[in-house]
Amino acid sequence: MAKTYETVIGLEVHVELATKTKIFCGCSTAFGGAPNTHTCPVCTGMPGSLPVLNKEVVNKAIAVGLATNCTITQNCKFDRKNYFYPDNPQNYQISQLYYPICRDGKVEIEVDGVKKYVRIHEIHMEEDAGKLVHDPYTDSSLVDFNRSGVPLIEIVSEPDMRSAEDVIAYLEKLRETIQYLGASDCKLNEGSMRADVNLSIREVGSEEFGTRTETKNLNSFKAIARAIENERERQIDLIESGENVVQETRRWDDTKEYSYPMRSKEDAQDYRYFPDPDLVPIHISDEWLQQVRDAQPEFRDEKKIRYKEEYAIPDYDIDIITASKKLADLFEDAIALGAPAKKVSNWIMGETMRLMKENSVDAEDLKFSAENLAKLIKLVDDRVINGGVAKEVFEKIFADNIDPEKYVKDNGLATVQDDNALKEACQVAIDNNPKAVDDYRGGKEKALGALVGQVMKAMKGKADPGSVNKMLREML
């Protein structure tokens, strides 16, 4: 009888915190920039330079810990993790081994309608390393230290996930929570959220864990899912053919859909950790902890319940809008400016989603304001413009956040309110389309649509279709 296997997965998720400056110096954390321009003696590891802790890093780490149900370590400290690599300028990384800032948390995920908890072993603060850029033309590697010293938290889960679906649900929950906090933008493509997958397999029913591997270089949810399936199959093939799984770190190549070994997996003692002598221990007082707790936002699960009670919009719309803090803020701010909830929801679910897809724009990168969306909805409600013109104007709002009132005025897009001009256009349409007139009078309602189209064309789209429809019916 064929053996059946269970996959056991734990994650190490690195998240770059959205502070303006680095963890131990005043250099900018902005993404991009010419190589080695966001640097100073501290983050390039110059002898004699001393680190000074950025308090905002601690605030954001506490906030993430509270949001993931962790116990906060109110007396914690930093340690040196010693290793030698070209992108690590000091030849050690400042991290937390002995007293991480957060411990013993959990987040709830839902997969196929089934809810379960993924436990969090710990969250610790640390500094990021620089970045190696490999130049194939000169066959050399260059180092960019802009990222060196950017503040990170590492969220280490327990091995509670059993499938790629579990992993994606967990990562989506983490990303959504952290974005709501404003602690990070969590952009996988820019490296501000990175996940390493620890995976092993065991026979179904077995209590013992198998030998695990760690897979790195995963920069999209699709890549993570593919790497998990690939590594599961690789380990099963090894065991079925009588070979052993080797504990090692593997690198995933998403274009080839293949992983290859990078190095054997080190243990903590290989890094010769010791307390960092240049940084004082951190004492998080009860008052400090309460301040961070009081500043926690309304999270998605709470918003979903409130939206259902307050706004008459479908559950599907609520799901999509609350999935992104940016969309939720846009929705709530437009309503606060007087726009009806259902109409705001329709514009987000319809035209906003369409243009996001067409232009490959993430919700977090939307540039238009709730004020301009609310103004557009009012222009339509007041029949200053019709629906067709509104869509045209919204494309400009989406791209350049233009003021719709000014744009409509400057471009002469307001609906023609002149009844005589409208009546004249209707008469011309009736005179020029005798077949459509006969069909309508013969009971074919659809024939009226052709006449409305002719009038709208004559009015260059600047008529109210409802008014055109009504006038044609009266004249016929």
Would you write up a description of this structure?
This protein is of the alpha+beta class. The protein folds into three domains: 5-288, no CATH class; 298-410, no CATH class; 419-475, Arc Repressor Mutant, subunit A. The chain is built from 15 helices and 16 strands. The strands form four sheets. The chain has a nine-stranded mixed sheet. Strands 5-4-15 form a three-stranded antiparallel sheet, with no helix packed on it. A two-stranded antiparallel ribbon has the order 3-16. Strand 8 (131-135) and strand 9 form a beta hairpin. The radius of gyration is 29 Å and the shape is elongated.
Which word captures the global form?
A: elongated
* Sheet having the most strands: 9 strands, mixed
Mean pLDDT over the residues? 89
From the N-terminal CA to the C-terminal CA, the straight-line distance is: 80 Å
Which structural class should the secondary elements be placed in? alpha+beta
Radius of gyration: 29 Å
Note poorly predicted spans.
Answer: none
Number of helices: 15
Q: Kindly estimate the percentage of residues that lie in beta strands according to DSSP.
A: 15-25%
Strand order of the largest sheet: 2-6-7-10-1-11-12-13-14
Number of strands: 16
| Helix percentage | 25-40%
Total individual domains: 3
Keywords: ATP-binding, Ligase, Nucleotide-binding, Protein biosynthesis
Subunit structure: Heterotrimer of A, B and C subunits.
Family: Belongs to the GatB/GatE family. GatB subfamily.
Pfam families: GatB_N, GatB_Yqey
